[in-house]
Target: DMT family transporter
Amino acid sequence: MQAFFGRRWSPSGLGPVGQGVMMAALGAIAFSGKAIVAKLMYKLGADAVSAVGLRMAMAFPLFLCMAWWSGRVAAPDGRSPRPLGARGWWQVAGLGFMGYYLASTLDFLGLQYISASLERAILYLNPTLVLLLSALWYRQRVSPAQILAVGLAYAGVAVVWLHDWDAAQLLSSQAGAVGGAEAMRAVTLGSVLVFGSALSYAIYLMGSGQLVQTLGSLRLVGHASCVACVLCLLQWGLVAWWTDGRLGGISALPWQAYALSVLNAVACTVLPVWLVMRGVQLLGASLAAQVGMVGPLSTIWMAAWWLCEPVTGRLMLGTAAILGGIVILTRAARAPSKADPTRATP
Model:
């Protein structure tokens, strides 16, 4: 286990920087695959409640192992792990609710209405939301370069949103349905839900800054994820009971849906958490975040390959604007005193 989680693991022929780049890139691509897997499950008859429920049910044992192992690893200050205490448990529970349960639920609900490319574009606004919330809550000064970066990123999302709207109208007209207002409502609803997911995760990031220095990233992610898993399972059971299985039902799902859930839990949830943590440890948060920009681009490619989503010049232009805004924002922001490995999109 120490060879797996610790610094002794090193791929042959790669130095620390090469390992960090590889892990940060793989983690970003794996996180992006979550939307593709969810979309494939929807085509097999799953809904958002059952998709997120199956994902968390299958990831729960792995997060329990992560939480258990984190209790055997020294804290960031070199001391033995300390008990959380009542206040610490409430903090972890709150962060688990905001950062993993609510963000995941809103994200999966939104994916029912918008493309995977637009979903990833909206989620990539996370650093801008953290900046805006910091300016509102902590009166943090925002520089002109940061304002430019935020404007560029949101303009890029608007361009990708228009691409999604046009694609939805085209599909509606091909299916013989009425386009226009109906397509716009669907894309708008999905965008609002995914934006709510990004906002929820931004609040988690702001709240986790001090706690991650005390507990360590592995311990915080392990415990917060376990809280989120329990909440998702409770939600799944309550919704299925309340709707008599119309929502959250899985009895009619084919075996491929369960296989996709295993893939989602392992390759798109638990494994990328570790990959991103290792990438940040080796590269630092700023450089790892820039490497992670491969995520939106990989989403476009995977969505075109697996979901047959159209790739247009407008989509690429909007994505480029978002990435450009995040690059400017990253360079304009002050480097944090310590890396925060929890800064990965769920």
